[in-house]
Every structure is written in C-alpha cells, then in structure tokens.
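Run log, item B.
One chain of 419 residues. Sequence copied directly from the ordering sheet:
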Amino acid sequence: MAAIVLALSYVLRIGFFTYALYVVLALLVMSALISRHGLAGITHKRYCAVQRARLGESVDVRIEIRHEGRWPVPWVLVEDLVPAALGRAGEVARVAALWPKQTLGLRYSLRCDRRGYHQIGPLLLETGDLFGLVRRFEAGERAHYLIVHPEVVPIGGYDVASPRPIGEVRVQRRGFEDPSRLRGVRDYQPGDKLSRIHWRSSARTGRLQTKIYEPTVMIGALVVLDMFAPAYEEHAADERSELAVTAAASLATYVSHGGQRAGFLSNGRDAADRARYDDIELQAATRWQAERMAQMREHSDRLRPFEVTVGPGPTTLQRILDATARVELSDFQPLGRMLLREYPRLARDVSILVLTPRVDQALLEAVAAMRKSGFVMSVLVVGNSAGYAAARGKLLAEGVPAYDLLAKHHLRELAAVRL
C-alpha cells in the first residue's frame, strides 16, 4: 500500500502526500522499535509465601517490577492474572511510565472463598508507542499455585466401621495377625507354613510347634469419591459435588485424627494435571490471546484414578486434603466401572466409604462383588433422596448399609447413625 501511494504521488506530482507517507512510515518504524525493546529490560518477581489455605482465609501477594533497560518506557500496563473464583482487595493492575532502574510495586490480597487449585499469575505486561499505533503484550514469571482446602465438618463419635473395632485392639474373631506380637505356641498342624514354626520350642518339646500371633487390626477407611460429571447432571451439580467433596474431606480427617489409616480414591480429574509448571514466557498480538495462553489448560489426558494410598499420620491426611482440594468433575469413567477394575488391589483391612450422587446398576454390581470379596463397605448417597430410597433396599440385600446425605449438618448426625 505504501509503494502504491508513493508511486501515485510521484506520477501526480503531489509532494504533500509523499511527505506525509514518509512521516507515517517513520512513525511506524519508530513505534515498532519502541514497543519491541520496551519490555526487554523489565523484570518482575512475585512474593507469596502461602501454598495452602483454608476457606475464608486471606493470602497476601506482592509483586516487584523493575526496569533494567537504558531507555525509558513511555507507558506500561502491568496486571497480575488472578482467579475469578477468589475475592480480591488491593491493586492487581497499574499503568505507569518507567525510567531506567525504576521500581514499581503491586500489593493485593486474595480471599479464599472457594476450594480448588488456583493459579495466581503470570504477570501480563502491555506497552506500545505514544501514538497507539503498535501495542505489544508479554507474560512471564512462573505462575504461583494456591491450594484451598474444602470445609471440614466435625464428626464427633462417628464410628467408621462398627463390624470392626476402632484403633489397634484385640478382637474376638481373628481377621489379621500382627507378626510382631507373639502370643504363644501350639502343636504343628498340617498346612502350617514353615516360617511360622517356633524352632526353639520344637527342639525343647521334641514336637513341632507353631507360633500364635496376637490378633490385632488397624482399622481405617478408604474414602471413594464419585466425581463422574454425568452422575451430577440431574440438578444442582455444583452444590452436590461440593457437598460430596466436603464429606470426603471430613470423613478422612475424622479417621486420621482417630489414629487410624486413611486413603482417597476418585474417578475425578486432578486440577494439577492442567497446570503450567514451566516458566510462562510468551508474546501475543492481542490481550485476549495473551490471557488465554497464560491460563491453566482446559483439558487433561489423565486416564488413571486419582488416588492417595492408605496410610497413617498427618502426612497422609495432608495429601488427602490436597487431593480433595484439587479434584474436579470429569467424564473419565463411571464409578462402578472403576471399582470393578481397581478393587482387587485395594487393601481389605480398611472400610470402604463410597460417596456418590446415584447408585446405578454398574455400581451396585461392583459393591456386591467387593462385599463378597471381604470388604467392609458403606455407601453414602449425596443430595439424592429419591435415588437413596431406590437403592437402599438393594444395597442392604448385599449386606451394604446405605445413608442419605443431603446437607453438611447430616455429617454431624452420622455420629448417632454409627456406620
């Protein structure tokens, strides 16, 4: 276009257009150079010491921007991309001119109003020339990720598995034996393993003696959370799924605080799989494109269950709370199909607590198969009274108790139910 206008101005001998064209071309070249080198010398760093928070807490964030270049930047817009789900107070964006060696700061606080795995940042920078002819967008600095744990409802006196005792106690019917606790010896019987023979007693008595161990059981619970998105599509999917997550975190917390082992298993998606952990350094032609490229990925290719292995102590509980914070609805696979494939490898010395919005035929078959394999199971139907009424009789017929969970206060009432 510039060449055509220049040729016409020479042919028509219009010197004004030639001069105007030179001026416009010079402005374009100067604007491109200014915008290209304007962000080259700008560095920034984010200060946020918090990685985990509870609902309702506030997290302070501070960003320091410094211009290390030789030439001043006419104007720059800096904005830290913050999650829309969290409330914020303070300055997350600012427009200013930067001189060499000048420092600019942003301070704000985030209010943790929603559980989840939230991405804070990266910092989005925009600059250009004084005439607005050219604008340039960049995003850099690795994003910070904040885990907001779900609400934990106190469950007082709740017995996670009355068919088995709480804690490490003696039981009347032998289920599991602790090889570290020798109770005595008895005469050898055909079928006893050689590793159980007490050789000293055998040598002293002249007859083979077999070790008898103290029958003890360490009771705990594996919380199985159904996050199959189609199962929640009947009504109020967000409210019911959040209730299920709250129930899972509350049950795991109670079990762990009771000195028992706890675990977590779900068919949901891990939000951490969508996060960008590498340095986010990108350039974009538009602001919308820069924001889209800097955000968390929309999809995850995870094809395995989201699991925290059963274990004791606060470390395992911390991992479970992190998992319940990060878990999201997914169309990975129905819960019944997942349990049928996974249950042969699950520990049988803990109770299985299933949290689901509905009990379909596949889940009923999986629960029945696990019950026949020796698992102690309970099913909590979340936010679906009609589904609970329809499934309760079928589950009881398989020896699996079912409970209706419609609100958070029902978790407290489980103390009277005593699963």
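Observations after the first pass:
- Residues 2-38 form one domain.
- The chain has four domains: 2-38, 42-149, 171-217, 219-267+305-417.
Flagged for discussion on Thursday.
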